[in-house]
Structure formats: structure tokens, C-alpha cells
Amino acid sequence: MSAVPRSRSRSFDQAAERYAVSRPSYPPAILDEVEAFLGRPLQGARVADVGAGTGIATVLLRERGADVLAVEPGAGMAAQCRNDHPGLPVVRGDGNALPLRGRCLDLITYAQAWQWTDPARSVPEALRVLRPGGVLAVWWNTTDFDVPWIAAQHERIARFAGVPAHARTRPRDEEAIALAGFTGLRAVRRRRGWSRTVPLATHLTNIASRSALLVLGESRVRDFLADERARLSEMFPDGEVEESYVVDLLMAAAP
């Protein structure tokens, strides 16, 4: 949850279609945890999915019966979301200044998006918009370092992109809650492992859709992906790659 350059936060607009077709979704257990903490089913709940991107988490919330609004700052990502999910309400907006009236929502979610906000602003904004007892839930698919080839690939990507590799030791719950800006609120952390199997081409497209690579230029990234394709083709001769994730979920209740 460290600060990241604004250029990276806006880089997704140029790759919205690739993002939509390659990025992983989230396991049902995540929304089960949200419902348990919220103390009610999502059916009929009023929800804003902020930093919604192409609508991956938004659709899961809608499938649970939530009355959900996608809030997305990027023009390209918002357009892709509207194109892929007709009838899903989408508004342009920023988590640091939500385009919503006060005390109107039961739940605000950020899937793969909280790091693009300033918690000093985004937490008070969420509390302004949530009803008393409402919940702010943020989560990420994170690297499963228990899988050796995935951990090694993570290191290669970090070196290539010139960004710090994520620490293999996860922060303790209280530290993660503090880093999210949830100190002083009733907050919990949950972690769930899961996996998906995709064609090698989808796996490589997923890598290419990461912000750290999007800002580097297509020719450099193309060469890197070619090396990855050769390496992984030997590991997965059938062309199917099992990606393993750990979803890190943090939730805080509004007073």
C-alpha cells in the first residue's frame, strides 16, 4: 500500500480490453466473508465498487443480488466496463472524493484498487458515504509465494520493471490493518488461497496488463514476454498454466 506514481494508476486505460479478458476474478469465499462481517446477505444491499476497472468484482456483487454501482476514474476502463456489462451503472469518480451523497450505502468495496488512493482521504470519504454499521472492504489477489515457479516469476518481473519485489513475509494482521488506514475502526483481516487454470497466452496477457509493465513501452515488454513464454512452455508443455493466488481481505465497519 505504498505510494505509486499517478502514471501507473492511469496506465490501465490503454490496456482495458486486455485487462478484461485476462485478469483473475475472486473466489466466492471472499464475498461470504464480507456478508459475515456486514451481518447481512448482499441481496438488496446498496453497494459501490470503487476503482471498479472493467467490472470484475462489480459483477460478482451483482450476482449476489446487491444493488451495485461501479465507480471508476479511468475513461478507458469505464468504457470497457460499460461495453462488457450493459445495464451495469458506471460513474466516473475517485476514491479520494466519492461522487456520492452521505450515508447512502451499506458497503463500499475496492478490489485490487485501494493502493491507488490516499487513505488519509479515502477512509474519511468511505465513512462519510457509509451508513452507520456499513462496511468498507478492500482486497487483492496477491502472489502465492508457496508456489516456487510463481515466486521466481515475481522476482523476474520486479527486476525487469525496476520495482521492489513484494516481501515474501506477509505483514501481521494488525500491521496490515494500520497500513490500510483502518486504525481506530472495528476491523478484521482474512486471507484465502485459490487458483485458476488458463491458457499460457492468457497468463502472459495478464502479466502484460500490470501497471509496472504498461509504463515501459510495448517493445521492451514484448521481448520480456517472449522469454517468459519460452520458459513456461517447457514447464507447461500442454499450454495450460495453473495460477495460484492468496486473496488478502481487509474490512472495517463505520461507527
What characteristics describe this protein?
25% strand, Rossmann fold, 255 residues, alpha/beta, seven-stranded mixed sheet, 41% helix
Describe what you observe in this structure.
The chain has 255 residues and is α/β, with parallel strands linked by helices. It has a domain at 6-143 and 169-195 and 245-253: Vaccinia Virus protein VP39 (Rossmann fold). It is 41% helix and 25% strand. It has 11 helices and 7 strands. It has helices at 6-9, 16-22, 28-38, 56-63, 75-84, 119-129, 148-161, 173-180, 200-208, 211-214, 218-235; strands spanning 46-50, 67-72, 90-92, 105-111, 130-143, 186-199, 240-253. Strands 3-2-1-4-5-7-6 form a 7-stranded mixed β-sheet. Helix 4 links the parallel strand 1 and strand 2. Helix 2 crosses helix 9 and helix 9 (200-208) packs antiparallel against helix 11 (218-235). The longest helix has 18 residues, at 218-235. The protein is globular. The model has no long low-confidence stretch (mean pLDDT 95).
